[in-house]
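Reviewers of the previous submission asked for a worked example of the structure-prediction workflow described in the proposal, so we include one complete record here. The input consisted solely of the amino acid sequence. No template or homolog information was supplied to the procedure at any stage.
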Amino acid sequence: MISSFSRDRQRVVPYSLIELIRVGFLLQEIMPWGVTLARANGPRAAKRPAINELPAPIVRNFREALSAALSEKDDLGRVWANAKWGAYAFYDYDGEPIYVGQTNELLRTRIRRHLTNQRTDAVAMRILDVFEVAELEVWPLWHLDGPDAPDKKTAKKILDGVEYSAYLESIKASKFKAILNEKIPPISDPVELPPSCRFQLIDPRTREERGHPDTRIARRAETLARLTAVAHERGEVTPGLRRVIVIQAIRLAFLAATRLAHVEGRADPEADAIDMHGLIGSVLAERGDPDGPTDQDLMLFGSDEA
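From that input alone, the workflow returned the following structure tokens.
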């Protein structure tokens, strides 16, 4: 004998299942996004991303442009950046020279250590802001490598001469008559610079974003703060680093003053409104060590950079 409760249960359960099925189909028809949303919000597949996918898009774009520049060839089919010996220079968004260096390793290796690996003294000490670099110029010294190359001492002297000459040209071209080298290159007789190539490292969109005056003022102020923090925290730093602090402060002040003049509808200020020479002295030679090495490569000259 089936109780009334059992009969009620027999009647209700099938009815409820049918209704639930109908409701399920109805929900799937009117809200298909629910399934998609559930899948989208579900757990990610356990897959490690490629290393080159990790940087932000703006960093990836810069590195792609750098890779393209370091792959450019000259008229003889030689890749500019594949020269073992040479000098190089970085320029900011105004085309202002900001740093000059040399290498005896490979131009491409040394430049990447500055701009991607960030494993040079200039970057580690917050002297050079990678986000401020918009252009690159290289002077390869092909004749210093190969079977007819001079001995290392002679090659070193030639390299120093090219670096110092590129440095003098940069000082001459700078509106401030000073750049951000912590160590001024060793004094050498000026030489005629070999053929060079200059590359753009940023696209128009990046220039529009990073090149906005307010963005650059904020970034430069941050760079200056980091640089002064290095001096504060380490205490014993080179006079050259303290000189760079002054140069960066002047560059920041000029950029901010130019922005103010633009907002007020006035003509841009003159760079010589600030007496750079009166504040930092000569930038043609180091006072204490005019013939000493610059920020060089670990490979041959024994730099202590990491």
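Residues 1-15, 296-306 have pLDDT under 50 and may be disordered. We consider this example representative of the routine output the project will generate in years two and three.
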